[in-house]
Amino acid sequence: MAWTPSSLNRFTRGFTLLELLFTLILFSLVMSLSLVAFRAVFVKAELTLARQNLEDLIEYARAQSLARGKPVELCSSEDGQHCDDLKVRTEWRAKLLVLSDGQVLQSKTAFSSSLRVYWLAGFDRANNLHFETSGFIGAQQGSFYLCPRAPFRYLAQALVVLRSGRLRLVDDYSMLADVCG
To answer: Against a cut of 0.90, is the pTM above it?
Structure first.
């Protein structure tokens, strides 16, 4: 019996070029959509870690002010030893310091480069968070805004620091869009 293409059944002939191209296009489309979703998971994890680091430092600074009976300050620092003068910008970068009487109590690198963090104070517009000996921050109530870069801005969060030094989380993007853009 001579070989002819019609003598082979459908499964032994293989796939046509059109079928392979269609499958490849469909596969690449599904992969590109899933990569965006996976990236959002990583950005959300990075944001959660940054928020937890910031919460830990704020709570540590408050506890130190109560334990020492002295004012304690939380600030952004480029050199890891002194607070930055943030009169021009309110974006916190690099390291965060907890200071008391000019002595560094704790230093932590809190944020990655893919995250922008802003401190917007309430009434006195101070650029550093200052805890009094009572653990309160007085009239300095404000918020830390944690803003991921585009296209993940909808994941933005804010930590509101109440006058009592306690924290409240806001994750409603409609309330954060003005700051995070």
So the answer is: no
